[in-house]
User: Fold this.
Amino acid sequence: AQTVTQSQPEMSVQEAETVTLSCTYDTSESDYYLFWYKQPPSRQMILVIRQEAYKQQNATENRFSVNFQKAAKSFSLKISDSQLGDAAMYFCAYIYQGGSEKLVFGKGTKLTVNP
Amino acid sequence: SAVISQKPSRDICQRGTSLTIQCQVDSQVTMMFWYRQQPGQSLTLIATANQGSEATYESGFVIDKFPISRPNLTFSTLTVSNMSPEDSSIYLCSVRDRGYNEQFFGPGTRLTVL
Assistant:
């Protein structure tokens, strides 16, 4: 069964600094997608960034970028120039392109941004 | 991306009662999902609701406790039946964009059972 592991329950960063959130996953499949979701206190789940496993190039969305290491099954999220509004729970998620297509979530990392 | 609304946004209920949560999407979608998020926890999939067929429940969730309706491609309901304090959670509706395999979430319903 596929699993997603986020080893950092909590992280903190100073405003304007850079922080990296870790995620590892376990799968025997080769075609899949990986995501980072943000959940602020409003509880709305917001898709931050997605990565297709077949793409070697790391995805980037403005201040958010990923370091996708397929062989190591690692998918970390880097937030540059951190802002107070980045404070939230961040969930890493995996989905297999075929089969049951269930989105599998990690346990989350709570990010605090200090002014 | 799909715009998803949920009603109610929050509710406080007495044990033994039932609550029905509504999920409305602004476009037709094949796959809709219901998740539970217990306090301080990650999301747990309750069931997948496809239009025209019975919902598929995950291990640990049963239809008698969480009946689901999916009358059309833009709407679904989840009922939490015979509630107990352990049912206090956030319940989220979600839809899948198969073209990009992206999944979008509603704003959630915060349920407190006394």
Q: What stands out?
A: The longest strand of chain A covers residues 88-96.
